[in-house]
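Recap slide: YkuD domain-containing protein, sequence and predicted structure.
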Amino acid sequence: MTLRPFRPTVIRLLSALVCLSSPALAAEGATRLPDWLQAHVGEGNGQIAPVVVERARALYLSKVKEGKTRNACYFAMDATRPNDVTMGPAGGRFYIICEADKTFRVISAGHGGGRNLGANANFSNGRECVRNFGNGLDSNLTAGGAYLTNEIKTSFKGYYRMASKQEAVLTRSFVQFDGIGETANARQRAIGGHAAALVSGVCMMKKPDSPYANRDGYVPRGNLVNYAAGRSDGCTSWSPDDAPQVLSMVKDNPTTLYIYPESRDIEAVSKELAAGRTPAADGVYWNSSCLKAIGTPKFWPKEKLEPIIAQFKADHPAPPPRPVPLCEGQPQ
């Protein structure tokens, strides 16, 4: 089912409730899914695959037990599903699960686009399905595994013109993810979650009264781009409509995020395909439509990928930075 967005007051009440219910919840264990949650389990549209919810719930309960989170809700993402930005239960692959009030919501989320380094290596991804995964620095890849949300930082991205021809400001909030195990370098990689919005085609506009103006009185101005249907630099990106709700849920109130697949899952699927078997027949999960689209998935470990990226940078040094041009009609 599709739920109305959670209000901040409701989130605070749920958080208070989970403080009372967490010990009992953790004691129950992760092996038994509640009946209400089991009703959302499956591989169809608007459902969460069994392995994804089981691992996400196990991670959440373990961190509740350790005292790392007291949030009423936890998150999961199935990056083997297609990036579907349709509204309602027909699409989406990012899951918001709140056991205290028995709510389940599915929203869209972007994935890491990867990079095409030509002769060095091509680990780029299409818009819809992910073939390449990895945890290498500067790889722009999604890395599956366990995360905890942490601090939120908000930054100014620029001005853009609205339909009313008025100038508006885009600020974007970013929640840092702290990884565990294979994803432990998430902070080093600046991996987190944010709205899929940016200002592109930037020029400098004279606006000395702006709090964001530089010392010469100029601010960046461009076109607002919503790339919810696109790719990211490895972060988890949500639509500009959904992002405020997700961010409000974790502000000063960390929770867990489990992203599927991990490297072990990618290896298992690859072995099944290499042996001429169908992964699903042997109980190895991957979304069938994306598996058909990508062929064989691949995980690029940082130990292998980072030297390749470093060599590419050495062979292709970045050009010196150019000043941002002034907007048309601006005084020199």
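The first strand starts at residue 73 and ends at 78.
The first helix runs from residue 8 to 28.
(End of recap.)
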